[in-house]
Amino acid sequence: GHPAARIDRVVRSRGVDVECAVARRLPDGPIDGFGASDCGCPSHLAGGEALDDLADRAVAAHEAAVAETDDPDATVDVVAGSGE
Questions:
Q1: Domain boundaries, given as residue ranges, for the chain
Q2: Is 60 exposed, middle or buried (0-12, 13-18, 19+ CB in 10 A)?
């Protein structure tokens, strides 16, 4: 809701649930337990890096997690935000 907030890009895995596998590959977030109340992960919120670096790591984390599933129908999508 902050007027300066914007969505830069969205990275998602389609066809598989890799949320925890992705979270394990990203740096720890600033809020313990954020988004992870239904699992044993420390947090599902990542941070502590420049936006482009974190976005690159998120894409790599999704690609690695999807590759581990061996599901030929699973894909990783990156959608650019409005930047506004």
A1: 9-74
A2: middle
Q: What is the pTM of this model?
A: 0.79
Rounded Cα–Cα distance for residues 80 and 9 (Å): 4
Of residues 83, 84, 34, the one with CA closest to residue 55:
83
Element (H, E) at 10: strand 9-14
| 38 burial via Cβ count (<10 Å: 0-12, 13-18, 19+) | exposed
Residue 7 half-sphere exposure toward CB, CA atoms < 13 A: 9
CA distances from 42 to 5, 12, 72 (A): 25, 20, 30
Q: Looking at the DSSP assignment, which residues form a beta bridge with residue 76?
A: 13
Backbone angles phi, psi at 30, to 5 degrees: -80, -10
Residues of the chain with pLDDT under 50: none
